[in-house]
Amino acid sequence: MSALLGALLLIMALAGCADDAARARQVKVTLANHVWSTAIQELIGEFEAETGLDVTVTTLGESQLSDQYNVKLNAGTDDIDVMMFRPLQEGRQFIHNKWLADVTDRTGDPAYQWDDFMESARDAVSDGERAYGAPLITEREILYYNADLLQRAGIDGPPETLDELVADAAQVKERVPDTFGFVSRGQRSPAVTQFSSYLFSCGGDFDDGTASTLDSPEAVKAYQVYTDLLRESGPPGTSNMNWPDAFAVFQQGRAAFLTDADSLFANVTDPEKSRVADQVGFARFPAGSAGSRPYNVTSWALGINDVSEHQENAWRFIQWATSPEITLRMQQAGTPSARTSVWDDPSATADLPPELVEVIKDSFNGSVGHDRPRVMKVPQARDIVGGPLVVGQQGGDIAAAAAKAAEEYDELLAKERR
């Protein structure tokens, strides 16, 4: 009997050791439903074969992903090792809540080539000198234009300044029947990211690090330029437009100019989606009094759950997924990378319009690494910043609306400092 009991105990011990060994090889990865996520999952088998680790992937839509993080990370879950997150939308909150592990020492490995990431991308996943993630995907605001409409309006080429954009948009609307000079996002919160490049190029920003600057002369000027374009040269109902609505107008050949993210270019160059695919041109964002200062942002990154029991495994996955080699393959699959070496590789841009590639590379210089307020409560901040955009489209007093927005923004900053 004692021999049988001993054998059972030995079997249980061996099973326990096997379970411990299996757990030690685990990497639990949570991703957003994104083209990058689809592409990387096709390569994970290579990572598993190379490392002997077992990767479990959970993919969620953006809203569901945010809900899961808020619930699980707040509860201190260890069900997540690697997490895909939006640095500008939730990065500060995650760092403040101590949900992201500090990876500064890991990024210092020379083989990882941390300096190969764009400076704005490194800044997006950092808090001061400390890094909390690895950049995945970047995008910039550019100017799209319809070459046919410009020719019909007697305009030689795309505008280089915001003043020229305003004048050219008005000229198209006046000279070409049934068309609009300009279209972009006008909806209160979604418009904020695209408005940011106008703000930066006019010499402004959302705040100076301690207080709101939304009521500065530079910010008021930017509000005026953007909303005048929408109201005077845009189609009716711009205050209800998000990016799909604005792109639809451009796709139909009814707008000469559109400012939005370069990552959305296929919506206007695909003949199955766009009537003007063969007429689309690309140009750098027009310059204001401070020059051309478009956003150049990191929209997604990978981080490590700070309470993960498998942080070494998690970093091995991140190091692999964001390595120069895999990043090149991801860009070839259609996701704009954050590594400069990849953009310098002709194979990474072979499927992009040459003019667009030139504009993107040119936009690396003089750009700004954020397109929304750098606060913890980003949705509330965007709603505040978007207030004057709505007022301006309605023909209201922008200076008064900006003063009100600045006051509300300062209140939000004060609450975050408590």
UniProtKB/TrEMBL annotation:
Signal peptide (from-to): 1-18
Coiled coil located at which positions? none
* Database matches in Pfam families: SBP_bac_1 (PF01547)
This one is known as Multiple sugar transport system substrate-binding protein
Per UniProt, the keywords (alphabetical) are: Signal, Sugar transport, Transport
Instruction: Say which species the protein is native to.
Output: Microlunatus parietis
Q: List the InterPro entries hit by this protein, alphabetically.
A: Bact_solute-bd_prot1, SBP
